[in-house]
Write a structure and sequence with these properties.
The complex is a heterotrimer. By secondary structure, chain A is of the alpha+beta class. Chain A is built from 2 helices and 2 strands, in the order ββαα. Chain A has helices at 23-41, 47-62; strands at 12-16, 19-22. Helix content of chain C is 46%, strand content 1%. The chains are: A alpha+beta, B mainly alpha, C mainly alpha.
């Protein structure tokens, strides 16, 4: 431990005017966006089956 | 006779008990079913934040018992500190995603304003907990952050009460006072979630806000 | 929703008339807990955590003796940033550095709660711990002298300090014209290099009842006076350090160093502090390549432009603006108009697409 040593000069990912983002923080922000999208689009385990069952039951009830 | 005593309006205990039973019956406190709209992954990020907090408390207890300098010279200590460090990252990560989904679903609807408020308060206390944690590290980070942040603390008159350069004081803030604050606010937040139920989507066309159909489906 | 009649409100989970699906709270907590544990342990094994070694007076006095000595002189003269800070360390700010906006000055309102007297606390008291009290007479001479005399000695010492070569780390500052200063500062340098100053500052015995000490206020304030409170020409950090106001007589030309502040921006071993200063988003950054407190960007933002960069009340500005923005965030559910914005984005239709699809299918003509 550690397998990957982060003890070296800080790398910047972005520097534009007074906007400055280190590489590590950029990764955090990018993952944040990714997980937010995943939360929006990915279904909970078992949800697909439950939704299918609900649809079938609703059609049966409507008939 | 006992029934009379129990339902007497002046008995504080029974009044509190009745409120609690109405707001938090076991079926709502520990649900085994939810409305069909609880179907996407974003519903898990609240629990993720909670479990990260558990990891913080667990690793934090070890660090507290071993003292603030242990982890600088022990490999196990470095590991425990690393668990604590990454749990902080995961905690705020989960909170931000949870905040995002709660914001864009306007989860305060239906009288859930206090749920939002206590969640936001949890976040602010957590930020303060993180700050005091940084200056408890007893390394260069702690020195720099303590010496720099003193100006912000002093500017708003907090300097003497939260002297970030005083390790003794900071230890009390970070290991006791603030985690209790986080735990307290998050407990109320969770109780309120269970009390009001998971917020419904804005009504679909042809349905009311409780998911019931407003008119029978048209049949040719 | 609470109704003002006898009928009890019900939880929406109970009131729900639509379809339901099974949900296992206990299993969810277990699985999520397991996931958190695995991720956190994996990250810890992979990356560990940052542990930049602390700075010490021993290091400072050895690596940058001119910076250490010129700073200590400022502590003796009580012209340093810490000595002229004002509340909570002194009763008034001689350098005008108290942060305020008009009558709003919380810094002044709390008063002098952490008294600091730099001559006594940073120099005289630590030197009194040296066996034989070698600095006693020099300290007394200094304290008894007139301000004009003290200034003359100080100017002479600084000139001598600038010229001193510090061959092989020796303190070879010529004492001519500097009165008792040469002895005081030389002893302080020796004490620092032995490691004794670190110890003496930590256990500043103001009372026989105090032996345990966990308070690093004095040493951290002292370190922060390095490089003329971070404003010196040798400081690598950007203009943000200029927010620190010091006595104008403190302004020294290049050559005296700025050791403490440069640790935060030099991006070199052993600390790899690269972007830790306030105007480089330092609040959200960490040493090396670890992620920092990225969640604090709404606060750090205020230090990057305008009053956050140039005002003497930059910190009050940043704290006030962050607080101001936090209020609508906190009370969002009760702010008409603002609270309706999130639904207007119609993002919720993606979050709940499954439910809306289901309801739509149910209503479709057959």
């Amino acid at each position: 431990m550690p397998w990957i040593n982060l003890d070296h000069p800080t790398h910047l990912m972005l520097q534009w005017g007074w906007l400055l983002v280190t590489r590590a923080n950029f990764v955090a922000y990018a993952l944040l966006v990714l997980c937010f999208l995943a939360g929006m689009f990915v279904r909970l385990p078992g949800a697909k089956g439950d939704l299918e069952r609900a649809r079938i039951e609703a059609e049966r009830a409507d008939r | 006779m006992s029934e009379e005593l129990e339902t007497s309006s002046s008995n504080l205990t029974s009044a509190i008990r009745r409120e609690a039973e109405a707001s938090w019956p076991y079926e709502r406190l520990m649900p085994s079913e939810e409305p069909i709209y609880v179907s996407r992954l974003f519903y898990l990020f609240g629990s993720t934040a909670l479990m990260s907090f558990v990891a913080l408390v667990a690793s934090g207890l070890i660090l507290a018992v071993a003292g603030p300098y242990w982890w600088h010279t022990s490999r196990i200590g470095l590991f425990v500190n690393s668990v604590h460090f990454w749990s902080v990252q995961l905690f705020f990560f989960a909170i931000f995603v949870h905040l995002g989904s709660s914001l864009f679903t306007a989860a305060w609807r239906g009288g859930r304003g206090l749920t939002w408020l206590f969640g936001a308060l949890t976040f602010f206390v957590a930020v303060l907990t993180g700050l005091t944690g940084y200056v408890l590290q007893s390394n260069y980070d702690a020195q720099w952050i303590g010496q720099q942040a003193k100006d912000a603390m002093n500017a708003v008159g907090l300097g003497p009460f939260l002297n970030l350069m005083n390790l003794g004081s900071v230890t009390g803030w970070h290991t006791t006072l603030l985690p209790l604050g986080v735990a307290g606010f998050v407990t109320v937040h969770l109780l309120w979630v269970r009390r009001h139920g998971v917020v419904e989507p804005p009504p679909a066309e042809g349905s009311d806000e409780h998911g019931a159909r407003l008119a029978p489906p048209e049949v040719r | 929703m609470r109704r003002h009649n006898r009928a009890r409100w019900v939880s929406s989970d109970v009131a729900w008339r639509g379809p339901r699906r099974p949900y296992d709270l206990a299993k969810e907590l277990l699985f999520v807990g397991g996931f958190v544990a695995i991720v956190v342990v994996a990250l810890s094994l992979a990356f560990a955590s940052p542990d930049p070694p602390p700075v010490s007076f021993r290091q400072w006095a050895t690596a940058s003796p001119k910076d250490f000595l010129s700073t200590t002189l400022a502590e003796v003269q009580q012209t340093s940033l810490s000595a002229t800070y004002g509340p909570p360390y002194e009763s008034s700010a001689q350098n005008g550095s108290t942060q305020q906006f008009g009558p709003i000055a919380p810094e002044k309102w709390v008063g002098t709660q952490i008294p600091v007297h730099t001559f006594n606390d940073f120099v005289a008291q630590p030197l009194s711990t040296v066996p034989g009290q070698p600095a006693a007479r020099a300290l007394a001479t200094w304290a008894a002298a007139s301000p004009a005399q003290q200034q003359a000695w100080s100017s002479a010492y600084l000139a001598n300090l600038k010229a001193a070569p510090f061959r092989a780390g020796r303190d070879d500052v010529i004492p001519t014209g500097s009165g008792p200063l040469s002895r005081i500062l030389s002893l302080q340098l020796g004490l620092a290099r032995s490691g004794g100053l670190d110890a003496a500052l930590h256990v500043n015995e103001t009372s026989a009842a105090i032996w345990y000490s966990n308070d690093q206020t004095y040493p951290l304030l002292y370190l922060g006076d390095s490089g003329q409170g971070g404003t010196g020409p040798d400081c690598l950090g950007p203009a943000s350090y200029g927010v620190n106001h010091i006595d104008p007589s403190q302004r020294l030309p290049k050559g005296y160093g700025c050791w403490y502040y440069n640790q935060a921006v030099a991006n070199t071993a052993p600390r790899y502090g690269g972007y830790l200063d306030g105007s480089s988003w330092g609040v959200v950054n960490e040493v090396g390549n670890w992620p920092g407190a990225w969640w604090l960007f709404p606060y750090s933002f205020w230090y990057q432009w305008g009053p956050g960069l140039t005002s003497q009340s930059a910190d009050l500005w940043a704290m006030a603006m962050t607080g101001l923005v936090s209020l609508p965030f906190l009370f969002l559910p009760w702010i008409p108009g603002l609270r309706d914005l999130p639904l207007k984005t119609r993002l919720y239709r993606i979050f709940w697409r499954d439910y809306y699809d289901l309801q739509e299918r149910r209503g479709r003509r057959r």
